[in-house]
């Protein structure tokens, strides 16, 4: 299970509160609230388009998130403090985008959420900033069970099965990651910069990187240099694995002429470094046997007793 954080924006300002909306809000409140006590607004939480992190939710994930986000609180900059709680989602809906198709080939859709906050002196400034378009972007935080690579179909975080890099192109296919099987929704936050360009209130979802999580919490410190070093080492390892994979495919095409490049690539994409090296050595040995040169000197005739075979070398 991984934690993800993405961004969006508010999609509308306050609207007249319908009786069914007030009823939904009162299902979450401790006491019966009146319409004049409540400020409600709509937000675009997340969609199924590829975002700036080369990741996306598919429609099935959005449907699960629609149920998970009802009742979840809104905060600022993913600061998980009770003092930062400002609003709460009371209703969600999946909205279609007719005529749009995502990079993954799905019809476009997005998750709309309706949020409310209490009208009080301490929220007057927040309401004014929402109405004025200042507080607009939001980010959602949730957990997903899997992050699936579009090239090989494996979890992109499992380097034993997947060595692809988000955003890179492999044989004409760009690697993007499908965030699958949401298991929980934590919160949504007002933020400054969204990850999803079109999203309303910024989205954040489970399964993000360490850098994303710490940045979201506003932390700083010496871990940043260590993280940069680790990321550099990881990139070096990924380049080595990709080179080893390409060399294994090349030798395989020479050693196993009946196998195509696509088949060999599909095989090697599922292997880790140790397995790739073993397969490369196997193909290399086969090539050595197939291309072995004949012995230049040999015995010319039948065996003769008494070492007379050596006469074959007599000039």
Report on this model:
By secondary structure, this protein is of the alpha+beta class. It has two domains: 2-216, no CATH class; 223-290, no CATH class. Helix content is 29%, strand content 27%. Strands 1, 2, 3, 4, 5, 6, 7, 8 and 11 form a nine-stranded mixed beta sheet that branches. A two-stranded antiparallel sheet has the order 9-10. Residues 198-219 have low confidence and may be disordered.
Question: What attributes characterize this protein structure?
Answer:
2 domains; elongated; 315 residues; alpha+beta; 9-stranded mixed sheet; 29% helix
Regarding quaternary structure, how should these chains be classified? Answer: single chain
Briefly note the structural class of the backbone: alpha+beta
Instruction: Report the major sheet.
Output: 9 strands, mixed
| Tally of discrete structural domains | 2
Terminal residue distance? 79 Å
Order of helices and strands: EEHEEHEEEHEEEEEHHHH
Mean of all residue-level pLDDT scores: 78
Helix content: 25-40%
| Global outline | elongated
Supply the number of helical segments.
7
Number of strands: 12
Strand content: 25-35%
The Cα radius of gyration reads 30 Å
List the uncertain runs.
198-219
Structure described in brief:
This protein is α+β, with helices and mostly antiparallel strands and 315 residues long.
């Amino acid at each position: 299970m991984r934690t993800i954080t993405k961004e969006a924006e508010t999609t509308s300002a306050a609207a007249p509160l319908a009786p069914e909306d007030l009823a939904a809000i009162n299902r979450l409140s401790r006491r019966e609230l009146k319409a004049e006590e409540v400020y409600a607004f709509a937000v675009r939480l997340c969609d199924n388009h590829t975002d700036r992190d080369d990741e996306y939710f598919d429609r099935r994930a959005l449907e699960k998130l629609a149920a998970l986000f009802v009742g979840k609180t809104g905060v600022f900059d993913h600061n998980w403090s009770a003092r930062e709680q400002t609003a709460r989602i009371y209703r969600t809906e999946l909205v279609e985008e007719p005529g749009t198709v995502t990079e993954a080939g799905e019809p476009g859709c997005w998750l709309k959420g309706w949020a409310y906050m209490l009208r009080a002196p301490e929220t007057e400034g927040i309401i004014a900033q929402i109405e004025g378009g200042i507080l607009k972007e939001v980010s959602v935080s949730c957990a997903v069970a899997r992050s699936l690579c579009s090239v090989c179909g494996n979890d992109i975080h499992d380097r034993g099965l997947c060595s692809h890099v988000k955003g890179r192109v492999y044989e004409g296919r760009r690697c993007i990651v499908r965030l699958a099987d949401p298991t929980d929704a934590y919160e949504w936050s007002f933020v400054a910069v969204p990850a999803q360009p079109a999203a309303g209130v910024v989205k954040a979802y489970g399964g993000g990187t360490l850098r994303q999580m710490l940045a979201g919490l506003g932390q700083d410190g010496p871990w940043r240099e260590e993280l940069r070093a680790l990321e550099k080492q990881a990139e070096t390892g990924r380049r080595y694995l990709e080179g080893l994979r390409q060399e294994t495919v090349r030798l395989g095409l020479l050693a196993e002429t009946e196998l195509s490049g696509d088949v060999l690539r599909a095989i090697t994409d599922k292997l880790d470094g140790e397995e790739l090296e073993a397969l490369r050595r196997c193909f290399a040995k086969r090539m050595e046997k197939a291309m072995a040169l004949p012995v230049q000197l040999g015995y010319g005739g039948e065996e003769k007793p008494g070492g007379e075979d050596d006469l074959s070398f007599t000039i």
